[in-house]
Amino acid sequence: MKLFKQLSAGLLLSFGFIFFMVVPIGIVKYSQGDTQEEKQEALSSILGGLILGTPSFAGGMWLVRGLRQQHQKQISDRLDSAFYSLIEQQNGQISLLIFAKEAQISGEEAKRYLDTKAKEFNATFDLNPAGGIYYHFHL
């Protein structure tokens, strides 16, 4: 399903882009048109490009937005799963390094996530002798 959405989004965006490219060509033809018929034809191609390009491009962007939200939800679920699993395994004590390793994210991302969860759950902090931060979530 995800592959289908990705392909659909790509096709819709491509079609929208192609139709939108007709618009500047129509504008040039309109400005260079000598007869009323040539100008009318150029206006028709401009209008056609806008009418066909707008829904295609908007549909593609809507699919891309949905895919991005789905991806963010999967990341959030993965981080939450790793967090709650470590909370149980470590009796509420999590180090930045262990969480980053378990969640497969960078140390900076792990710190942001754990700081957010620490505020949410009123966790306390400790420093180990090597300078690492330990988060204590009270069970």
In terms of topology, how is this protein built?
Elements: H1 2-32, H2 36-89, E1 93-95, H3 96-103, H4 107-121, E2 124-127, E3 133-136
Antiparallel strand pairs: 1-3, 2-3
Helix pairs in contact: 1-2, 3-4
Your description of this structure?
This protein is mainly alpha-helical and 139 residues long. It folds into 2 domains: 1-73; 90-139. The chain is 78% helix and 8% strand. It contains 4 helices and 3 strands; from the N terminus they run H-H-E-H-H-E-E. It has helices spanning 2-32, 36-89, 96-103, 107-121; strands at 93-95, 124-127, 133-136. A 3-stranded antiparallel β-sheet has the order 1-3-2. Strand 2 (124-127) and strand 3 (133-136) form a beta hairpin. The longest helix is centred in the middle third of the chain and has 54 residues, at 36-89. The relative contact order is 0.10.
